[in-house]
Structures
1.
Amino acid sequence: MSSLTSRDRRCLEPFLDMGSGLVLNFSDRTMGEFFQEQVGLNIYDEKYQFKGTSKAKRMRAFWELESDHTVARALDALIEWGEEFRCLPDDPQQRAAIEAIIARLKLSSPVPEVDAFTASVNALDFTAAAKHIRAAIEANEPATALDRVHVFMMKFLRTLCERRGIAVTREKPLHSLMGEYVKHLRGSGQIESEMTERILKTSISTLEAMNAVRNDQSLAHDNPMLNHDEAVLIVSHIGGLVRFLKTIEAKTQASQS
């Protein structure tokens, strides 16, 4: 269940215009579609109606039942929806209070970088791996996602290398892809500090070690799983790396447009 306090709810409910049993400008259909698309949940499931059947009461049940991270994802998406349809209050102080609540909820995740695990191209295996990783993290079971993290990184780095004209073959291992990618970043002047370069170079050997974790300590094979704390460390580290590389790529694309 989420850690939302009664004070948090008193901030959220007027912000989302829940006073009359509604939520923003949602109809029954659009609210159902929204929750399915944004958090992969059926808001009309019976488990969300123990407080009542109105949209607002289902939202309150959702806040009570779901994890901090899932609630934060939904709130972020609700803000995007509200901005698109211009149905949010025009109150900077109120907005700041809501964003502070969301930030606090995100910090409670065992892996703060969970949102980094999103597919950057529309490929079924990439999307499925990303979804599995996020679900495992939200369930606080990161060890069950280690093999999917390996799959995700292979697809992610192959995509980055292909964009930069780096040869990609099926046989090229994860750490080799990272090595060639870092070399290209350095050659194109996209790394400003020696420390950043060292961190990225260290990631090459880190990814090489990930092969053993995948083969011997994950669900990829019939193995005993890695302990929880080390799994959190590994997934957090990879998530931070992915987020940084996505930032580099976004800047590159912006400069070329």
2.
Amino acid sequence: MAGVKVIANDTEFQPELSAAGSRLAVVKFTMRGCGPCLRIAPAFNALSNKYPQATFLEVDVHQCQGTAATNNISATPTFLFFRNKVRIDQYQGADAVGLEDKIKQHLENDPGNSEDTDIPKGYMDLLPFINKAGCECLNESDEHGFENCLRKDSSYLESDCDEQLLITVAFSQPVKLYSMKLQGPDNGQGPKSIKIFINLPRSMDFEEAERSEPTQALQLGPEDIREDGVIQLRYVKFQNVNSVTLFVQSNHGDEETTRITYFTFIGTPVQATNMNDFKRV
């Protein structure tokens, strides 16, 4: 729903965050009589109407002292960004252009609400936490590069010289991985044999990937790479992950190239546990 929801007291804040679910929630912490807060107020209202796919909340630090303390607010205006009640980013100051850039950055990586029924309670789609600038894909086609498989549309990632791909995914903060989605076509080009490595100190090449022991090895069946497929990971081995490297060794039909139509991870940010356990003293 477009518009800014004003939080009247501390008890309203968490229910509003819960209602936002996986949608981006932008929370403005303000204070009566604060000049910069007053200056940016019209722009914040306008942004709430411009980006109705996000939830916009306003919290007065005097009316909601507990919420302000829990979120360590030391200056106003401060804008906090949440998904699934997890704080993912912040922005300070009254620069409307900078604030909108931050909102657009997070909405570009919006997994949408359609995935909620596929994700176990307590976990979330980690696409918003993927740092695209830190990602790398070796042997990707010039026409069908890695970023294509991060979008739910007709585009796709395809290998170039042969069927193998070496994909490194960087996260913007440490995460715990529960499962992943690695979708491909049913024409034989879908990925089959996968080796997964985590937190490598440097990029590896194909020769290293072939000979190195992975964190987990997978043999994917046709059902795993369908649109409704979910690939379980050994959760205990993926508890503090900054980066993941996927070595796609082969595809299902021994085809010349491999295609990946969509790719994401399911899990939680590591910081989520600490935030949920926080109690104001």
